[in-house]
Amino acid sequence: LTGGPSKWDIRDKVWAHLEDSGLAEFPRPVHGRIPNFKGSLQACGSLRELGAFSRAREVKVDPDKPLEGARLAALQARKTLLVPTPRLRTGLFNRIVPPPGATKEVLRICATSRGVRDYSVPVGLDGKARVDLVVVGSVAVSEKGWRIGKGEGYADMEYAMMVSMGAVQEDTPVVTIVHDCQVVDIAEELLGDHDLTVDYILTPTRIIKTNCKRPKPQGIIWHKASGYEMLGKIPILKTLRYREKQMGKDVTLQDEHPCLANSTRAAELNKKEMAENTQPQAATGSAQMGQSHVESDPLSPRLEGSGTITTVYVGNIPPSLRVSELKCALREFHVTPFRLNWQGAQHRAFLDYQDKVTAERAVSSLKGLSLGGNTLRVELARNQRNKG
């Protein structure tokens, strides 16, 4: 059944129809967005009629404009409201926390994008979120529950991340809220394993129960993820990927291939480090809490005094973290320094690199990584030769 409309054909048709028929609402044009539409508040109001909503304690609602009414309904019903950080730049969720005794007007503000900015606290990967209901935006959806988003894959990725961190179960209901004209036929062939399906569709005139039997994504499908670009955009993915790798899962990315220019050099370093890791010195690195613990790599020519060394500061290291765990993460991101100055008692470490480019790559690779429950603070050391 090839030759039918593609996902992009369907998106373009829906966006054009909403604009041409005068159903599109601010922000406009709706092209390229989860479209806001006339009657969105009415459609969101139907959420209160769902048993799944009444039973839910924690509700996750996407930050899109047409879902404002759904966020308001959750706040008015005194539920815990989680909203993904826009484009997942910092973490995964923010919890919207209205001020004590918030009036209707303040709750309304909390439900807008300003609410995410002014009244929210970030929820980390270890925030133990248990989401009972998921509300996502859509560009198009079929009565069978097949969903098409705006094409960037964020809602699918958010859901997969929630599966990975144990925040949703297989039976956690997923709701989408759209205009009636966005409910269209979608061929099942267009759906991939990573595509999120929905259980309920709310429109200004209907509540549709899809009885969708297609399994939802079981977690992040790493080999489908467009690799390093996605990891660069979504720092929290690095942490999830690192965790899943530690658990023995295959986390090879779609565009990952061993094309590191210095892969033999990296392999030598890895071997060298593996040997170091089995030496008692490395094992007791975290036990000698009081004193700093410096290791340098004899493979590297001594660069003292040549002034080209760039130092990276890693802070907010949790007391429970061992030096071997940090080294393991450095290897994972291919940013092994030639010398590591571990100062566990001060919750920090300094990494020495032979050139600025590698040091900067280390900073961008490690930024947003959480180890042992803490998000590491990573930056170029203040005077570049900071010995602490």
From TrEMBL:
Keywords: RNA-binding. Residues 276-293 have a biased composition (Polar residues). Residues 310-383 form the RRM domain. GO terms for molecular function: RNA binding. InterPro entries: FTHF_cligase, FTHF_cligase-like_sf, MTHFSD_RRM, NagB/RpiA_transferase-like, Nucleotide-bd_a/b_plait_sf, RBD_domain_sf, RRM_dom. The keyword RNA-binding applies. Pfam families: 5-FTHF_cyc-lig (PF01812), RRM_1 (PF00076). Residues 272-303 are annotated as: Disordered. The keyword Cell wall biogenesis/degradation does not apply. One of its GO terms (cellular component) is cytoplasm. SMART domains: RRM. This is Methenyltetrahydrofolate synthase domain-containing protein.
